[in-house]
Amino acid sequence: MKQPAKSACPCGSELPYTECCGPLHDGAAAPDAAALMRSRYCAYVLAIELYLLSTWHPSTRPTQIDPDGALAPQWLGLQVRRHVTTGAASAIVEFVARYRVGGRAQRLHEISHFVQQAGRWYYVDGEFPALTSKSSAAKSPAGKSPTSIRAKPPAKGGND
């Protein structure tokens, strides 16, 4: 599902989609890890599977995902809490994403790890710190980050 050109971007920046995450979804490089995080959240809202996979680091990327499957959350909002450069080509982004599944509103709190290679940022993985709010969940409905919801693990090699 593509976002209408003049609509506000789903990432919450208050900019039009065409001036915010739209260019990244069309192939432009994210200027930093926070911009990539916002664009990945937006890609989940809009169910842009190819973008989600292409911005996932190959070392942790699943073979496929289903961002709009039967149990897909309804994304309600994103709050980026902090963005910290941790090295010449690495960063973390801490965020809280609000969503609804089966009529129940929840929150996902994640500290995501990103790396930059050949001028492009990639999502690697995330940690799930406990939230202080009693009504908040520390994990998504699938027990995974919004960047990995409904991810199918890569095929295992060797003789299992």
TrEMBL record:
Annotated Low complexity bias: 134-148
Region called Disordered, residue ranges: 134-160
Family matches, as InterPro entries: NTF2-like_dom_sf, YchJ-like, YchJ-like_M
Residue ranges annotated for the YchJ-like middle NTF2-like domain, each copy included: 33-126
Family statement drawn from the similarity comment of this UniProt entry: Belongs to the UPF0225 family.
HAMAP family registered for this protein in UniProt: UPF0225
Name of protein: UPF0225 protein AW10_01053
Originating organism: Candidatus Accumulibacter appositus
